[in-house]
Amino acid sequence: MTDTLNPAGDGAYGSIPRKEDARLVRGQGTFLDDITLPGMLHGAILRSPLAHARIVSVDAAPALAHPRVEAVLTGADLAERGLAWMPTLSADVQAVLATDKVRFQGQEVAFVVARDRYAARDALELISVEYEPLPPVIDVTTAMDPAAPVVRDDLPGTTSNHIFDWAAGDKAAANAVFARADVTVGCDMIYPRSHPAPLETCGIVADFDAVTGRLTVYATTQAPHAHRTLLAMVTGLPEHKIRVVSPDLGGGFGNKVPVYPGYLCAIAASMTVGRPVKWMEDRSENLMSTTFARDYHMHGEMAATADGTILGLRAKVLADHGAFNATAQPAKFPAGFFHIFTGSYDLQAAYCEVTGVYTNKAPGGVAYSCSFRITEAVYLVERLTDMLARRLGMDPAELRMRNLLRPEQFPYTCPTGWQYDSGDYPRALALALEIAGYDDLRREQAERRARGEYMGIGISFFTEGVGAGPRAHMDILGLGMADGADLRVHPTGKAVLAISVQTQGQGHETTFAQIVAHELGLTPDDVEVVHGDTDRTPFGLGTYGSRSTPVSGAAAVVAARRVRERARAVAAAMLELSADDLEWTDGKWRVRGDPEQAAGIAEIAMAAHSSLELPDGVEGHLDASAVYNPPNLTFPFGAYVCVTDVDPATGEVKVRRFIAVDDCGVRINPMIVEGQVHRGIADGIGMALMQSIAFDTAGNCLGGSFMDYLLPTALECPSPELGATVTPSPHHPIGAKGVGESATVGSPAAVVNSVVDALAPLGVVHADMPLTPACVWRAIQGRPIRPDLALS
Amino acid sequence: MRVTMTVNGTEYSREVEPRLLLIHFLRDDLGLTGSHWGCDTSNCGACVVLLDETPVKSCTMLTPMAAGRRVTTVEGLGHGARLDPVQLGFQRCHGLQCGFCTPGMMLTARWLLDRNPQPTEADVREAISGQICRCTGYENIVRSVLWTARHEAGAGD
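Predict the joint structure of the above. Result:
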């Protein structure tokens, strides 16, 4: 079930159907809200209707009097336990329940616990909160004005909304290439606030046992081990008494990385009432209060020679982090991996500056399959490349081909310090252009333009760095980003692999079984994958930033190879030979020169558990563990082409074709890889054309439901046309790279480039996402639009 | 109030609050957790079930409105231990990733194929356009439904 052009003849492990599907197509998955424990109560959160206000008083007594209500928690109640604030993943603190002020619309103010979910909601209406409204900080461009209200007056000594300044690259070198460039182009561009919006919202069932002191938490988490550690730090409970279970997740895309206030409220409530407490947010709560994505206000510039050699890049970014700095990325990188913004081109110098600011909006910023802000970087460089092509009168494909890194330049260190591991960029772009029939498309476009029709052809080329990361450079909350794998081989040769990462639909139960089976000469059916339970799996930081295959997948390979080496010693004893006489070929240990004399893992496993006499130093059994600390990120890349038709009268954009060539190294399960790419293309179309979390001047969120935050349906998404090249990662043990976010990262620029290309005859050089009919129409009129605000 | 309806061929009679949403009745009262809740506003379709023969969004229907009707959920889609061809198609064509939208998508697909055994790609896209999938970009869902149509027509792969 794969129809990639140029399919792998390159070590792919096979497009086998997924193990997960048997339960999921029967409706027998176990998602968070499917969990019901005996005596379980239901929580609901009272949220602020205002973006910025001082809390004068909270009166919860009428809610407590509701016959079905068991408890109400307010900020004051949590403050008594030291739980009113919690650490974020970015060295800030976030209110669990507000005590002093509310700082965004939808912020958590009180938590009701009742016997059923309807009663909990009813009781919210009975709580009276008196607010003293304060002027909100909504427009990020004026947030640092001296007269702006201060969002975070809770932080000692804070007198402004400034969070951080961060820079990368060589400023003087970049300025020098700009000074001698023949041509420069520059543009302000907004990557608007978006939201990952997994179809399953976030939730928890917290079950505290006062007798044993054990806390069991069922939670929608992409990082169960990191959550366990964080919960231990916040609650003061000893970590070995905490068990985090992440059941089937209905998507995540980054939304299920943070610990949310609702989780701590449910835990505190369970500790208070001595019964399990479930809290499941509704869709509006999900969109208005959990981690958003993007919100980068960028100015980018590109310098080049007259013949189209790109020399340098500069970028200045204002980053809206909302009311609490709660971005989730390696701690040393406050702007994520944005400084990979030199992209895929061989240029001489680059420099970027990022300033983070507080506003009265929901916290977050790094989420939604962005590979730690690489999508913002790709968007910037790919828009500028198209602008440069237009300025020079060059074809954008030709300009890219001229400037792409060449295969012989790898490993390549880019001007901001990333070391790209491997790539053959011209091959990928050439394949994408071939699938697209690029020259024919340009001919068709010329004919249509002559008829007054607006057809666009947009290209993007992206390089990602995924698989965070080397622990010397990357940690979250001081936790290094390594992941463990435990592999047990039972006497009959069936294996159980326990991993630290958590699938949200990526199919780990299948692909990790394929990895182990491939290493041990087993079938994927012989390997069971255990995940999502901190009591049953080794420590690791979880699934986000496309890190499962690069990090945890590598750990599984290393563990399997250790099993194989243990099996070698046992096989030698079985065959009464020296281990040196054996070689691993075709899934068995075989005698050199006599390959028919051989032992497979199943028979070796039985022998390893038997009374067979083993040489000194050989323990028996075959189990092995590994912790994988990646030496570098992996650098997947790809070339995308998007064909659009635009109606200039209505501003409507129709995506006619989308061509994607992805190179993620060796593909374990090409069917699953292609499914991931399909999703990312839909994301890119959604982000480019539809999705935006905007605000009005009072700070009211204008994207608080699926009526307002528009997601693409089957009617907006074309049938993608996929191609593949395979350039293995030299440092990953099976040459794989991450792919889960590639298309989300790479595709928005192709869509926007296509629409702007369509409108070129009308003089449009740029329009900010989302390119809704209204935005496109305004761009045609030459009128400005601020997609992040209901302002124009 | 007392409500009686037939769900997956079994008649249930329960005392419920009049405001109880059908999705919550199915999930919380009957324990049929295969139907999911995703948005509150009838936009996502994770809660789609068949009411008599018609797909409805059970998050936007009160339980009493289904009184005396037949409801089919994903748990009733198969035939005993045997999967419905739609379920086979979704497995075969990688029509699901996280699986959260899948029950609703499959029920709509069943409804479509019962009325239009040989749908075009456009027919399939139109039929599922009231439902959201965040994982597949819809491509493999469309392929799954088209595979099922071919399979039910007796064609090979």
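Chain A touches chain B through 56 residues (CB under 8 Å).
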